[in-house]
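User: quick one, fold this
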Amino acid sequence: MSQLINALAAREPHGKLEPFSFDPGPLGPEQIEVEVEYCGICHSDVSMTNNEWGFTQYPFVPGHEAVGRIVGVGSAVPGIANQPGNPMGKRVGVGWFAGSCMGCSQCLSGNHNLCQTAEQTIVGRHGAFATRVRTNWGWAVPLPDGLDPVSAGPLFCGGITVFNPLVEAGVKPTDRVGVIGIGGLGHMALQFLRHWGCEVYAFSSNPAKSDEIRKFGAHHVVNSRDAADMAHLNGKLNFILSTVAVDLDWNGYFSTLAPKGRFHFVGVIPNPVPVPVFPFILGQKSVGASPLGSPATLVTMLDFCVRHDIKPMVEVFKMSDANAAFEHLESGKARYRVVLENDLT
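Assistant:
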């Protein structure tokens, strides 16, 4: 299948998304092609559109939280996860990763997201603000029954970004866990942690959001700008997940870690973090970070979502209104993820 794909593309940094058509060429032997039904907007789409990371290629088609049905299958595709037989017509999700080598030590050990030659859906290729998008068969994850396709897209980037650390860091149901940044990522983290069994602390500087934050799953809402509120937590938290993309008073948060506690970054902050080594040595504490998750962890996360009725809170725009949706996200008004319903033809 190599007929034209219709999409929306930016032609320069900070440029508006405009209609754009391209010929994707022949379908690769291990690729599948997905007809896009819905696609979430992640802040990474905005960053890439504006070339904030310095490697965007124009014209640029954003979109890496896609949900749709398989309409094309390469000659060497063996199937998709937990779905034997011909995958044609199956509804799947496509996230940040669109391929990995499948032969390195990381891929062979199940850590495909750490593959050194992994391919990203919107890096050096066109994404899912389009009628169709392509991915390696291993990264097309089937949507289980009971998962709403309208709100599922953000799980394939934002969701797995905050779910993967729970698995990789061995977070226990008995742990006290803090979440910094209750937005697009954080509101999903609260839901995961509550159903994981943890005692959940949400750090927020906006008292007006407290009731909503508790509904997402927080047992406690901590005013991060109140020194007394923060001091009350000194030495109590086993794990802290930071989802923000801004610099904060990190020492204030580090002080809330219990012995053997771990501080974990998933938000990309602009500057290096000064770590006070002596208290980390005395308390045997650590700092870590992680990128999304493997296909196997994605499958686990989706099953967990169905079991506990977890889903992102989304606002839906038509894909043809993607510029308005971008402006809504950039203005900070999104509650909490924006999803585009595909109306491109």
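User: anything notable?
Assistant: The mean pLDDT is 96.
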